[in-house]
Amino acid sequence: FNGYTILQLINTFYPWRAVSSNTLHNLTRPWIYVTHLGAELSVLGMLSNFLWLYLFGFIIQDLKGKNSVWPLFVIAGVACALMVAICVAINPATLQSGFYYGMRAALLAVAVAACLFRPTYKVFQMFNGGFSVWILGVIFLLLSLTKGQLDIANIVAMLTAIAIGYMYNNVLEKSFDN
Question: What does DSSP assign to residue 153?
Fold first, then answer.
């Protein structure tokens, strides 16, 4: 990015990839409801997101079979972005940071789905027999709450993700091709 500051990067590239606090922006760029998932300001943030996705996604894939993780992740990401856009349409001040981006909420849906399907599933078994996945889910939730700005739109997105993760085991699973 040759000398761009973070502020210049946000002002130049994020309007094309992230959900904004401007309703007209959100209506005229429908691709942002998917591309916001890949918009992250730091390389380490993106790497940690993919590690969390791999960890919780591996659990779902191990328990439910292939083709279960990506549909859940994308459905949750799009639904969370739509909920943020609805919050912004009602009151633009609900998104205080100006842009909604990243995959934190979609990851939360995958984590909730993994934790609710088999909460006693053991991870990291090489360390004294491992520990239950729900503990890892609580750790992820606490880390998610500390990352970024928690305004009304982000809280609505996280609640939407929790609801989709919960519905995955009962409603959405029947829609996936296992």
Answer: H
Residue 132 parent element (H or E): strand 131-132
- Terminal C-alpha separation, the chain: 41
Tokens of 96: 């205080």
- Tens digit of pLDDT for each residue in 49-101? 899 999 998 888 888 877 778 888 999 999 999 999 999 899 888 887 777 88
Distances (CA, A) of 97 to 50, 57, 71, 153: 23, 29, 28, 10
Are the C-beta atoms of residues 65 and 116 closer than 8 Å to each other? no
For the whole prediction, is pTM greater than 0.90?
no
Range 37-59 burial, b when 16+ CB lie within 10 A, else e: bebbeeeeeeeebeebbebbbeb
